[in-house]
Specification:
Blueprint: E1 2-6, H1 15-28, E2 38-40, E3 46-48, E4 56-63, H2 85-92, E5 95-102, H3 110-116, H4 124-141, E6 145-147, E7 150-152, E8 159-161, E9 166-179, E10 182-195, E11 198-199, H5 200-208, H6 218-225, E12 229-232, E13 238-240, E14 243-248, E15 253-258, E16 266-271, H7 272-278, E17 289-292, E18 301-303, E19 307-309, H8 321-331, H9 335-349, H10 355-360, E20 381-382, E21 388-389, E22 408-409, E23 412-416, H11 423-436, E24 440-441, E25 446-449, H12 459-473, E26 480-484, H13 494-505, E27 508-512, H14 520-532
Parallel strand pairs: 22-24, 23-25, 23-26, 26-27
Antiparallel strand pairs: 1-5, 2-3, 4-5, 6-7, 7-9, 8-9, 9-10, 11-19, 12-13, 12-19, 14-17, 15-16, 17-18, 20-21
């Protein structure tokens, strides 16, 4: 078990700094630890192969790092005059940590072998978890983003633009599993969402779908940017955003000490723009607000045009319907491509060179596991009049064939959420196509168009208003409602409409989106769904 405390006796919670401290400890105190290699989970657990020389250790670790705030005269702090040099000097001092290590438990690796033989073992899952931690540690050292057992590298070729300042990032999942073939490495492709790296201004423009910075909704931008990390272009230092300044750079002031001869100097108010101009950094957009990258009671202002979004920052907010569709479409890979990506990753990761795996006697084959398989023939379908329908190239042709159990639809209606739609033609084509398939469809009771004013309302309101119109136009509850959605994918109305029909009203419904290819094949596919429902 590991505990990490700073020199002021505060527990260190951050995973990133924790890994750096443990790596530095291993480098500094390797002899005291008998040269053992560690598997560290980034939090409180640390594993070694075999025991350490003693059960308890306490080490002082000195990190030769400079704080992000040690910038000579960064806005929001005083510039390094005589009275400020102590602060700057203090920021450059090494950071000291106290690392405590205490024995917690012994996990025998043999428990995995016993589990594979069918014996009960209390430690098998613990042993597999340790091996998974070794996998995670490998990728952490390579600078990858870790999401449970998935990892994502900083490679622009793995990014997929989802619009709105969000990108899909392709990566890999890896974990150990017990299978019939023994201990196996399970690896597959994985995808997560990240903030698109690049200038903060560009991110806000795409996120809010506006073209001019003067159209940016700054309260919304403040909520979006909070807790994200940026790198300053003028000094390459990284900061965490806590908010935005109240005023633009040209008017936002902060106190700065100015040296006056041999005296201590005096404090004057200076604007952020003036400060950066004195440092030969000329702002192109001083009318924009600053990023606050300080602390709640001690702001530190960075002009927003000097900030770049750092790569591999997870985007955890909900995606829009269009973003979800794009993510699914662009993340899809052909089986051959997927296999190539996985096998290349196994080779590039060089698991056999890992000292912990070597100590455990674990070697991983670079080739995929081979299994015997067989190709099943497509099932034979029986259609109307007990005719056989033979598939051809993976498809069934329903031309001139009737359904095995066609239904009869009497009380139904068409509702139209689409501005451009000929409902009479849809009704006519559906009835004619249904007749050829054996489905008896009476004429619709009503063709219900949405009011123009309702199209500006929220999706739930639009659905409720449409149902009120349906009730007014039908003599009783309908057996079936055909819903024509607007001409775009994943319409916001779809979810509320389905919930209202299926969950609340118990009405069968089928949604369609008008297209140029509304031919016999199109209506046949729609009728197959309607008939089954």
């Amino acid at each position: 078990q590991v505990s990490i405390k700073s020199d002021d006796d505060q527990v260190v919670e951050g995973k990133g700094i924790g890994r750096k401290v443990i790596d530095k400890m291993l480098q500094t105190y390797s002899s005291e630890l008998a040269g053992k290699d560690f598997a560290y989970d980034g939090e409180k657990c640390l594993f070694t192969v075999g025991p350490l020389p003693q059960n308890n250790f306490e080490f002082t670790v000195i990190m030769e790092e400079t704080s992000a705030r040690a910038v000579g005269g960064s806005p929001g702090h005083e510039s390094p005059g005589p009275g400020d040099k102590k602060r700057v000097k203090r920021s450059h001092l090494p950071k000291q940590f106290v690392v405590g290590i205490s024995y917690a438990a012994r996990i025998p690796l043999r428990s995995v072998a016993l589990a594979l033989q069918g014996s009960d073992s209390d430690h098998a899952q613990d042993a597999l978890r340790v091996l998974d931690i070794v996998l995670r540690q490998q990728q952490a050292k390579r600078g990858c983003l870790l999401v449970r057992q998935s990892f994502f590298s900083d490679d622009s070729r793995n990014l997929v633009d989802l619009t709105g300042g969000v990108s899909g990032c392709r990566g890999l999942h890896s974990s150990f599993r017990t299978t019939m073939n023994g201990l196996s490495l399970n690896m597959d492709v994985s995808t997560t969402m990240i903030v698109t790296p690049g200038p903060v201004v560009n991110f806000l423009l795409t996120n809010q779908n506006v073209r001019d910075v003067r159209d940016i909704d700054w309260p919304k931008a403040k909520r979006m940017l909070k807790n994200l990390r940026v790198k300053a272009t003028h000094n390459n230092m990284e900061f965490k955003i806590i908010g935005l300044s109240d005023q633009p750079c040209s008017r936002q002031t902060f106190p700065m000490k100015v040296r006056s001869g041999s005296s201590e100097g005096q404090t004057v108010d200076i604007t952020v723009e003036e400060y950066f101009k004195s440092k030969q950094v000329f702002l192109e957009k001083p009318y924009l607000p600053c990023l606050d990258v300080g602390k709640p009671k001690r702001p530190n202002y960075l002009p927003i045009e000097l900030g770049n979004m750092i790569s591999l920052q997870r985007y955890t907010k909900a995606l829009s319907s269009q973003q979800r569709t794009t993510l699914v479409e662009k993340s899809r890979q052909k089986p051959q491509d997927r296999m190539r990506v996985v096998t290349d990753a196994v080779k590039s990761n060089r698991y056999d060179d890992d000292p912990i795996f070597s100590s455990c006697g674990i070697k991983i084959d670079s080739q995929l596991t081979r299994v015997e398989g067989r190709v099943l023939s497509a099932p034979m379908l029986v259609v109307g009049n007990s005719q056989d329908c033979v598939p051809f190239k993976g498809r069934w042709n329903y031309n001139n064939k009737k359904l095995f159990e066609p239904v009869r639809i009497e009380r139904w209606a068409i509702v139209n959420f689409s501005a451009r739609c000929d409902m009479s033609r849809i009704s006519r084509e559906l009835i004619n196509c249904g007749r050829t398939k054996g489905i008896i469809i009476e004429g619709p009771y009503s063709l219900v168009d949405e009011d123009n004013q309702a199209r500006r309302c929220a999706p739930i309101v639009r659905v409720e208003r449409m149902f009120e119109k349906v009730k007014a136009n039908l003599p009783g509850p309908p057996e079936f409602l055909l819903c024509v959605l607007p001409e775009r994918k994943n319409c916001d109305i779809y979810g509320p409409w389905k919930k209202k029909n299926l969950h609340e009203m118990g009405i069968v419904t089928q949604c369609i989106v008008p297209s140029a290819k509304m031919n016999d094949q199109y209506f046949t596919n729609v009728l197959l769904k309607i008939n089954a429902k």
